[in-house]
Design a protein that fits this description.
By secondary structure, the chain is an alpha+beta fold. It contains 2 helices and 6 strands, in the order H-H-E-E-E-E-E-E. The protein has a 3-stranded antiparallel beta sheet with strand order 1-2-3, with no helix packed on it. The longest helix is centred in the first third of the chain and has 18 residues, at about 1-20.
């Protein structure tokens, strides 16, 4: 057992003596080069400015969930791939809580509009 331990630890002891303590590196110091701070280019500044998205004034009143989900938008029933009647827009996808609509080259996400019950008799 002693021979086994000596054979395992002896090479490590020799390496430590040969290298000396000054050759150890600090494990908490990063080996990666330091990041250089670069000023934003004009293009990056323009891209970071707020972009105005086209607005689509439609309301999703409900979603009928089945093998082929349907969405009720402004009182009309639409399926995936259908085009909206009043706008040049297309239904891309219907999820359980939202509808993805392609309008003017931009994908818009419309959620179901929640109606609040204010009490009283219907």
């Amino acid at each position: 057992m002693k021979k086994f331990l000596v054979n395992i630890f002896f090479p490590f002891i020799l390496v430590n003596i040969a290298l000396g303590e000054e050759n150890y590196r600090d494990p908490f110091v990063s080996l990666l080069p330091e990041e250089k701070k670069v000023e934003q280019s004009t293009l990056q500044r323009e891209m970071s400015q707020e972009v105005s998205l086209p607005s689509l004034n439609v309301k999703v009143h409900g979603i009928l969930w089945s093998d082929t989900p349907l969405a009720i938008i402004d009182g009309e029933v639409y399926g995936k791939g259908d085009s909206l009647k009043k706008f040049d827009a297309q239904i891309l996808d219907i999820d359980k809580e939202k509808v993805l609509i392609l309008y003017n080259g931009v994908i818009l996400e419309k959620s179901i509009e929640k109606l609040e019950y204010k009490g009283g008799k219907p």
